[in-house]
Specification:
Blueprint lengths: L2 H25 L4 E6 L4 H12 L3 E6 L4 H7 L10 E4 L2 E5 L3 H10 L4 E6 L17 E6 L4 E6 L1
Parallel strand pairs: 1-2, 4-5
Antiparallel strand pairs: 1-3, 3-4, 5-6, 6-7
């Protein structure tokens, strides 16, 4: 093989390694998640770490009272948890797994206002302790909820 052809092949192979990560970045943009939480809440920090580890760009807003954010985003108080987030126009209440958020963003159900994992469920993302079965709920603007995922 002549030198000119060898240089061309080496350059082509090197360029392909550079373009693969760039193509992946364009194909799967990071969704920005705005999280509203009390600064003293440790489990909320665990959920933030879970979301970041799953590729989300997370912006944390420490607030004294999360209730106004829940009201602004239309989270039914019956579904409340310790922190409230917003991503892609949806409300995310509590320790909802990143996979459920990704599914919501991919499917974009017409009537959905958001997802909720009410309470403080042991074993859910960010919560320590032995895992228990739990369900992520989809809720609409009227406060009605339905099963979205079981874990």
């Amino acid at each position: 093989m002549d030198i000119q052809r060898r240089r061309y092949l080496i350059a082509a192979v090197a360029a392909s390694f550079v373009s693969i990560p760039a193509a992946r970045a364009r194909a799967a943009p990071a969704h920005t998640v705005s999280v509203y939480k009390n600064r003293a809440c440790g489990c909320c920090g665990g959920w933030v770490a879970h979301m970041r580890a799953n590729g989300f760009d997370v912006r944390v807003h420490d607030v004294d009272d999360v209730t106004p954010q829940k009201q602004r985003l239309g989270v039914p108080m019956a579904l409340a948890s310790c922190h409230t987030a917003e991503v892609g126009g949806y409300a995310i209440e509590g320790h909802v797994p990143a996979a459920d958020v990704r599914r919501l963003l991919a499917e974009r159900p017409a009537s959905a206002r958001g997802l909720a994992l009410p309470g403080m469920v042991p074993g859910s993302p960010g919560m320590d302790g032995p895992g228990t079965a739990y369900a992520t709920l989809l809720f609409d603007s009227r406060g009605r909820s339905s099963l979205f995922a079981q874990h």
